[in-house]
Every structure is written in structure tokens, then in C-alpha cells.
Amino acid sequence: METMTSAASIEKEHLTWLKHIDFYKSQLQVMEKELQLFAKESSSKKVAPRIEQFQNQFIRQREVLDVLRHNIKQHENEIERMTRFALEYLRDRVTKEHLVVRAEFRRYVELFIEMEQDFHDFLA
After folding, report:
1. Is residue 8 within 8 Å of 97, Cβ to Cβ?
2. Residue from 119, 98, 73 nearest 9 by CA
3. Which runs of consecutive H residues, i.e. helices, occur in the chain?
4. Residue partners of 38: CB distance under 8 A and separation at least 6
5. What is the per-residue pLDDT across 27-68, written as a single tens digit (0 to 9) for each?
């Protein structure tokens, strides 16, 4: 099993993730604007269901980002508790939780990239 060397390295990764979350939220705003423009310009009723599908995906993507941010912040609280009270028994749990959050974040990125590509293919 992979282990983290220190709480500082975990916190550094958290900061990176939080920056990425802000980036993905801004990308969602850009894509929403592009979709609105496309919807206004499109006269085909055949694309309406697909437009609605992307609107729903954008909402869901934002919800998942909020959950990820929450999980990261909760994990930071656990790290602080572990380091403040020198609770050694928490180290393994914190490391395991970190690996879970890392996997969730990586999966989100994969799905976001896939959705973004699908969206741009749709607009093309």
C-alpha cells in the first residue's frame, strides 16, 4: 500500500486539488455559456434533448465538485486533529482516507475530460 510521508505532503496535494476544483468550476461556466449560445443559434428541435442532457451534466458535475471540496476539507480537519494531538493511531486511517479521496479526484478528472470532449464534439 502506498503511504504518505507527512501531513505536509498531503496538505500540499489538497491545495493542488482545490485549485483544480476552481479550474473545473470555471470550465463549467464557460461550457454553460457556449451551450446557451448554441441553443439560441440552433433551430433544430432534434438537439434539444442533447442540450438538456448537457445542462443536467453540468449541474451534476458542479455537485460532485462540491462534494469533493467538502471531502478534502473534512480530511484536512482529520489531519489537523492527528497532528495537534499526536494521535498515531489516526495516521493509518488518514493515509487510507487520503488514498480514497485521491482516487475520487482522479476519477472525477477522467469523467470531466470525457464529458468535455463529448460536449465539444456535440458543438462541432
Report:
1. no
2. 98
3. 7-41, 48-84, 89-123
4. 51, 123
5. 999 999 999 999 998 878 889 999 999 999 999 999 999 999
